[in-house]
UniProtKB/TrEMBL annotation:
EC number of the protein: 2.1.1.-
Superkingdom assignment: Eukaryota
Alphabetically ordered keywords of this record: Methyltransferase, Transferase
Gene3D superfamilies membership: Vaccinia Virus protein VP39 (3.40.50.150)
Protein family membership: Belongs to the methyltransferase superfamily. METL family.
One BP annotation, GO: methylation
UniProt name for this protein: tRNA N(3)-methylcytidine methyltransferase
Pfam families with a match to the protein in the record: Methyltransf_23
Task performed by this protein: S-adenosyl-L-methionine-dependent methyltransferase.
GO molecular function: RNA methyltransferase activity; S-adenosylmethionine-dependent methyltransferase activity
Organism: Bemisia tabaci
InterPro entries, per database record: METTL2/6/8-like, SAM-dependent_MTases_sf
Amino acid sequence: MDHPTETIVDSLSDMPQELTADMKAALKRQESRLVSEFQANKLEAEAKKFWDKFYKRNECRFFKDRNWTGREFGELITEDTKHKILLEIGCGVGNFLYPLLKSGFQGFALACDLSSKAIELVKANEDYDADRINAFASDVTSEDFCDNLISNSIDYVTLIFVLSAIHPDKHVNVVKNIYRVLKPGGIVYLRDYGLHDMTQLRFQPGHKISTNFYMRQDGTRSYFFSTEELADLFSKTGFQILTNSYVNRRTVNLKENIDVPRIFVQAKVCKP
């Protein structure tokens, strides 16, 4: 829950924020020492291991519940979804899934994550109901991801801060897999880290893997998107772009003298 003295202000924009001289200097410093090729390959090969360690250490304490579902993706809870199927990719411990169900989503939810530890925690939640949720571990980048899913069977797919954790070379694999399982007319809802977000600017030398792609201290990774890149990624696979913009968020706490700017990308795309 947000602190009662905090004010969260969101605004949509078609353009990324303009970089100041200090921001440009921070990005330039990151180039002075990059992640080695050996280390980058290790991070990719052991991605599941690092995420399992993350959830073993943090369990359900790290991410806040994403209670903005009704505001941003209102049709998931206001339309008749009783006979709809939703696939949440990268469900983590259910910080998006459970608030969505409590807000009014009436359909059946498939929830997958690379980390088997995360799936254990989803199933351990007191709100887990096998009649409404099927949670399973799976790698959305792999060619066999769709083997256990029926083609053209999913009504909605959610990608909430998921693509950013995946190597950019594999983003196209993810989108192609989604296209295969989504029904014609099906919708993908996405929110992720935007280009030049505060967290990107704060990475120190030794953490940059490649353009807009970084290693965190715990071995997990983060990519930062432009809206143009997202549009190109989905449109080349055959999706129709419905909405695609930057979300400029400021969290202001006057009592604590905090004014934190964040930049996300948010998109909604449709399979024709």
